[in-house]
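Thread title: Can someone regenerate the structure for this chain?

I was given the following input by a collaborator and told the matching structure tokens would be attached. They weren't. Posting the sequence so someone can regenerate them.
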Amino acid sequence: MNILDILAYSALPVLVLIAIRIISKIEKDEVKKSEQDMDKENFTLRRTKASLWVGILCSVLFGGFLIASLIYPLITSDSRIEWWICIGFAVFMSLGIFILLEYFNWQVKIEGNNIFYSNFLRKKYIYKIDQITKVKFICDISGEKVTVFMGNNKLFSVNISCIGYNLFIACLNRKESIIYES
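Best answer:
Regenerated them for you:
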């Protein structure tokens, strides 16, 4: 393996890391700008537009690669389909679709003392802020997030990159009986 091959193989991870940093910067700017205009008592936590574009790009790009990898053997003399490549493209295309579904379906709406939560599958729940007994701050592979509990039952989690996250934390801080864990 020569130096050009090494550079070619190491360029992709570096480009992915650069893209992640750019997207997170765009998300932070959008969150900051959007939260300035929000009402402090009635607001909605939602995903950023950057996650919408990541979902669209991921779905279209890997969907196109999947279609190309299935069509290429049919139009050339090579009749062998590399299934592991197709499966890889399908997994990343599914990830993009998952991001899109979460962008359109997931939200937490705060109206006074009420919390209206809609999950990934659009199932709706209604809670009172007074019902929250514990808040746990977690940092894992998906990023920093806060998980809200009623007793020992998990209600929902909110990622730090969501619009309205800081307002939500301020809203929870006004309630003195919540136990905070990290």
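Residues 133 and 178 are 5 Å apart (CA to CA).
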